[in-house]
């Protein structure tokens, strides 16, 4: 921990999820945020969070910088204890962007990102730094810039990567989130939690992104929709099982039932891919879908539906990138 009584945290990726955790962490740590597309708005006006959990109209003005070079220059004498990555999991980009703010042997890197198989590029880039892998449940959108709408859930599940690494940094960050008023769970092995969430991410994200529809709208579109979603989720379950993360059919059905239960409440969710497509941003197709497909095929798991979603979402992502 940095000198003084509060740890020093740099948040990279001040979107909906990142901003809520920035607000929480500011209660227990000295925080700075890297803002990119929303930098000028946040620098001038700060953020407003409208949360069904924490309250409405929460206004705060954090310390913000344009990039990690600027963040590092401001922290030259006292390095960051944590760099919390809440940006999209796009391969080959983020490690280079955060590198200026990472002090070898000291700064712990917290990956609050979706998908599976995302951690290795960070261990390759920062082989002397602790890597903390996190699974997040926090529905949030940012519209317009600087205004965050946060739904009914806030939970962070954390663990060390790899599982053989020291648990001390991940346990310490878990306690920091709790001290800030958040919900955090430490897991000896975080990978089963990643796969469990992937049941939602790798099914709903590409389907909603490709159809420009909320999850409940998909389920109400036709009688066949529920069975198709369940079949995709079962393929994800089979890939997880083949990679040592056992899940039951009952767990799959539970994940599907969460969306089904929101239909009479008219409480459909816009998954992150749908939000990105609507905003013309690149999507997390490799972390959420592609990695799972490759891991399944490497184990001989049949995943035709998921592979089709990957091909379609990959083509969409490339088209967005060309605009």
From TrEMBL:
Keywords: NADP, Oxidoreductase. Coiled coil: none annotated. Its EC number is 1.1.1.169. Pfam families: ApbA, ApbA_C. The keyword NADP applies. Residues 189-316 form the Ketopantoate reductase C-terminal domain. Catalyzes the NADPH-dependent reduction of ketopantoate into pantoic acid. This is 2-dehydropantoate 2-reductase. The lineage of its organism: Eukaryota, Fungi, Dikarya, Ascomycota, Pezizomycotina.
